[in-house]
């Protein structure tokens, strides 16, 4: 029998709902759960499923909690524990405080159901390829330094990618150098120097915009550099040129190589193709055999909390529609 999943939340939750309506979805969308607001009602109508309250969810195998956690003034943690207490497995969207994750973890254990938190971006196929390639690179070449660029909105997810890509435990602390609209964070990750550049601008009336860069990485190793420019991008390998007596040892070697897949998706294709597949992978953690967050998950969250505690509030800004500069920049020779 196909598992049935309830989706709580109609903002980011809409991506889960749409993913569950694709032919390859690992479960069936059972209902949208909301407080009766316009957005929830519209999403339920668009998905052709009932709109329910928490109490009316009924028989489902799992639930996605995609509403704000207590950390940012929401009811996500309370809803999660209520569902776990009813024997319903839960996939909860980050960010969540490690303290609340630990409490929900105890509730899941008491009732023998699955519980997972979802940083989302590590499940995207291009990010998974970067993680796998970084891990493979470390088997053959010494990694000296990692540069990651991100923003305050996706800092937690950026750290989860690093935790999957790099060897050794996450550091317990970091040096934080605050700026006005961006910050530098420096840390030692089991012997590899990691620098984070964090953009920090926020429109209070439109918090989902101005999240740029989402995440980008450069892994500097003995044999070259591995790059990922954004979570929907192809990886790029830059071999290190070796000079002997003033001339490259391999002059015909490429300066850089785009690794497969070499064609990058449009923004729309990323949302309709890459995102549903990533959501399916995340849901598999709570469907079937119960799984629970491990100590590495809690360690990453604590690192994120320690960094965030030293950062000032994001610089206020207005999220105006950007002008497409592609043609102007491409015309420059």
Give the tally of structural domains. Answer: 2
Mean pLDDT across the residues is 95
- CATH superfamily caption of the largest domain: Dihydrodipicolinate Reductase, domain 2
User: Would you tell me the structural class of the helices and strands?
Assistant: alpha/beta
**H-E order:** EHEHEEHEHEHEHEEEEEEEEEEHHEH
CATH class of the largest domain: Alpha Beta
Which value, in Å, is the CA radius of gyration? Answer: 21 Å
CATH architecture of the largest domain: 2-Layer Sandwich
Which residues sit in consecutive blocks of at least 5 with pLDDT less than 50? none
Largest sheet: 8 strands, mixed
- Describe the strand arrangement of the main beta sheet, using strand numbers: 8-9-10-7-12-13-14-17
Q: What percent strand? A: 15-25%
Description:
With 333 residues, the protein is an alpha/beta fold. It has 2 domains: 4-118, Rossmann fold, CATH 3.40.50.720; 122-272 and 301-315, Dihydrodipicolinate Reductase, domain 2 (2-Layer Sandwich). 32% of the residues lie in helices and 24% in strands. It contains 9 helices and 18 strands. Strand 5 (89-93), helix 4 (98-111) and strand 6 (115-118) form a beta-alpha-beta unit. Helix 1 packs across helix 7, helix 3 packs parallel to helix 4 (98-111) and helix 6 (155-165) packs across helix 8. The radius of gyration is 21 Å and the shape is globular. 40% of the residues are buried. Pfam families: GFO_IDH_MocA. Residues 4-118 form the Gfo/Idh/MocA-like oxidoreductase N-terminal domain. GO terms for molecular function: nucleotide binding.
